[in-house]
Amino acid sequence: MTATPIKQKYDIADISLAAQGKQRIEWAGREMPVLRQIQDRFTQTKPFAGIRISACCHVTTETAHLAIALKNGGADALLIASNPLSTQDDVAASLVADYGIPVYAKRGEDNATYHAHVETALDHRPNIIIDDGSDVVATLVKERQAQLSDILGTTEETTTGIVRLKAMFNDGVLTFPAMNVNDADTKHFFDNRYGTGQSTLDGIIRATNILLAGKNIVVAGYGWCGKGTALRARGMGANVIVTEIDPVRAIEAVMDGFRVMPMDEAATVGDIFITVTGNKHVIRREHFASMKDGAMVCNSGHFDIEIDLKSLEEMSGEVKQVRNFTQQYFLQDGKSVIVLGEGRLVNLAAAEGHPSAVMDMSFANQALACEYLVTQKGKLEPGLHSIPTEVDQEIARLKLQAMGIAIDSLTAEQQIYINSWTAGT
Ligand code: NAD
Ligand code: ADE
Question: In sequence order, what E strands does 172-303 have?
Answer without folding.
Answer: 177-180, 216-220, 239-243, 259-260, 272-275, 295-299
